[in-house]
């Protein structure tokens, strides 16, 4: 863990910002690299685009551009001397986070959990839980 970079996936939520602070603190402590990742979910099915004047790829590209703008804003607000690598990937969040972790040989993933319980937990995919269960490296889940 102490030699590989820390990967911090973000959905730009308040909870993710809280996890980001933990991730930066740990990267500074261990003097390792830092990777910030946002995954743009691919819109499902062509039927969702019949009323749009743009193609699914154009819509996904627009979503990536918006995420890049939010990533720049997020980085501008950070008070850190770390060199932060940013990535935007397209696809399923769990799959892309795990792929980035493996490809980058990260030492740890620091991810936010939205802390859903009951029916909300049942109805929404828990990305943090899936990443923690499937990752080959240690995972710190922050609430």
From TrEMBL:
Listed InterPro entries: Rossmann-like_a/b/a_fold (IPR014729), Universal_stress_UspA (IPR006015), UspA (IPR006016)
Pfam families to which the protein is assigned, alphabetical: Usp (PF00582)
Ranges of residues in domain UspA: 5-143
Residue spans crossing the bilayer: none
Gene3D superfamilies for the chain: HUPs (3.40.50.620)
SUPFAM superfamilies: Adenine nucleotide alpha hydrolases-like
Family according to the record: Belongs to the universal stress protein A family.
PANTHER family found in the cross-reference section: SENSOR PROTEIN KDPD-RELATED, STRESS RESPONSE PROTEIN NHAX
Protein name as catalogued: Universal stress protein A
Organism: Shewanella colwelliana
